[in-house]
Amino acid sequence: MGYLPERKARTIYVTGSSVLHNGRRRKLVLESRPEFAILKLVGTRTQYPIAWEAILELAEKHNAENLRVEARKGKETKVPGGAKKN
Description:
It is built from 1 helix and 4 strands. It is an alpha+beta fold. The longest helix has 26 residues, at 52-77.
């Protein structure tokens, strides 16, 4: 019987969003690898590798900040003591 080595999966996603880079709008490409991801901009050679753990930490920080902002907005819209009576 033959031996099958572990497959190294690699998936590439071209996102629908674009970012401004050197005055031009460029599509963002995410290359998924087992240990890390690589972010690239279409039409450039620059690659930005980032570990999956770092992406998770960044998402957790953004989520916590968004929850704080939403809570602050909720407090600002409430009128203390209710509506005024004439």
